[in-house]
Amino acid sequence: MIKLPKEVIVLIKKFKDSKFQIYVVGGAVRDALLNKPVDNWDFTTNATPEQIQKLFPDSFYNNIYGTVSIPMVKASHASPLQKSIVFEITPFRTESNYSDSRHPEKIEWAKTVEEDLSRRDFTINAIAYDGSKIFDPYGGQIDLNNKLIKAVGEPDKRFNEDALRLLRAIRFTSRLGFLIEENTLKSIQKNAELITKISGERIRDEFLKILTSDFPSEGILFLKTTGLLKYILPEVDACFSIQQKSPMRHHIYDVGTHLVMALKNCPSSDPITRFATLIHDIGKAKTFHKDEKTELITFHNHEVVGKRQAEIIADRFKLSNKQKDKLVTLVAEHQFTVSETQTDKAVRRFIRSVTKEYLYDMLDLRTADRIGSGATPTSWRTELFKKRLEEVQKQPFSIKDLKIDGNDVMKILKIKPGRQVGEILQKLFDQVVEGKIKNEKDSLIKQVTSID
Ligand code: ATP
Ligand code: MG
Fold first, then answer.
1. In this structure, is residue 439 part of a structural domain?
2. Do 279 and 189 share a structural domain?
3. For ligand 1, what atom is nearest to the CA of residue 168?
4. Are 356 and 410 found together in one domain?
5. Do 253 and 367 reside in the same domain of the chain?
6. 125 C-alpha vs ligand 1 centroid, how far in Å?
7. CATH number for the domain including 371?
8. Angle between helices 344-354 and 359-371 (to 10 degrees)
9. Is residue 319 part of a domain?
């Protein structure tokens, strides 16, 4: 059966002692039955929020869903930082009267757990456990065994009630490596356009979960085959009809397939680096050019066009400024040249435009790009380039990084502020970069007096 942690058993007992019904429900039951670690324990009960608060005086209740949060001390904890855990208890609910495919007009309490389970999205999420017995009126355990995502009840009706469920279905397939049951899949295809009713924030949350799942590329292919991609990322959808095989070129896939293959092979687990990997070549759909005589296909400036598209996508997905900056930078800079013969100056310029912060994400994107084009993960040239990046980063990047400043120069030479100070610092900087002197205070001080 399901093994419950001690604090969950304590909580269940407290409800039962007061003659209330209480069930673990949703993702916790699903993940426990799959032998996956559970980090969120959600419960449902016939107790009202007021009754729950009486049972647990330090609980808090402040949302429109009727959910009461109960902080519990953990019996055993992996790290000392994780001493407590918050359990969410939501009284039995039904949902009715969706008129906008977004929000139920009003939330009504339900009388039984069966009724509560009927409002849940997929059968694998509609299983309840009371500590000794499993309640599974929709056959969720069978679907868990068959690795299927299946809507509870009539799929068309359920997706019309809340269109976010269209994306949630894809999220669970890519997270669990499941397929979508036939009627549910047909219904998603039929109702895909409803996703346009959902806010950017809600789409973003589900989409980033798809990207960080174990099977993100399968998720994107499901979005493509269900028709959802056309609505949420038309820029990527368009890439599947852009060919790039041409004489003298290394490409083996169309642009869309290449993007999916790159994502599949992205070594980073960071959501924005994965996002950037998925969209890095979207500019190609707008810059496609095929020479009639040579049949050579080119995509001039696709990274410039892609950068603008990335900005639009970031805004549509309501990314934070920080996330947007990262996404746009990675897309804009992805065409960087890897060459062991580049001057330090050129390497420094590259680091400055990617920024040190995103440097290793940029390299991860390049690795993904290579594998996603059918190439080996790296090359001797790339490895040499990485060494150059390390070396150049040890050098100062600007005058500001020198271990000496204008005040030192003025003191040593007994001069007043002015152009001369800046010129001396610049000369010192150049000498450090050229490797003539070390960026250490002593050697810099000595050098100041010998600069004319
Ligand atoms: P995760 O592990 O990602 O949190 P989860 O299944 O717990 O997965 P939540 O979004 O936390 O997902 O939702 C908890 C439960 O609430 C779900 O298992 C499902 O039963 C129900 N649920 C959540 N969102 C919806 C929805 N839009 N429509 C119907 N039921 C939903
Ligand atoms: Mg959850």
1. yes
2. no
3. 27
4. no
5. yes
6. 7
7. 1.10.3210
8. 100
9. yes
157-166, pLDDT tens digit by residue? 999 999 999 9
Going by alpha carbons, the residue nearest to atom 26 of ligand 1 is 121
Provide the token pair at 42: 């959600």
Q: pLDDT (tens digit, 9 = 90+) per residue, 305-342?
A: 999 999 999 999 999 999 999 999 999 999 988 887 88
CB-based contact 326:355 (threshold 8 Å): no
Please give the distance, rounded to the nearest whole angstrom, from the Cα atom of residue 202 to the centre of ligand 2: 15
Looking at the structure, tell me whether residues 241 and 183 fall in a common domain. no
pTM of the entire predicted model: 0.89
23 shares its domain with 101: yes
Pairing between β-strand 84-91 and β-strand 42-45 as defined by DSSP bridges: parallel
Structural domains of the chain, count: 4
DSSP H/E element including 272: helix 271-279
Interval between CA 433 and ligand 1 midpoint (Å): 56
246: helix, strand or coil: coil
* Minimum-distance ligand 1 atom for the alpha carbon of 31: 2
Residue 26: CB within 6 Å of ligand 1? yes
DSSP string, 313-381: HHHHTT--HHHHHHHHHHHHTTT----TT--HHHHHHHHHHH-GGGHHHHHHHHHHHHHTTT--S--HH
What is the extent of the structural domain holding 323?
Answer: 235-394
Q: Is position 320 within any domain?
A: yes
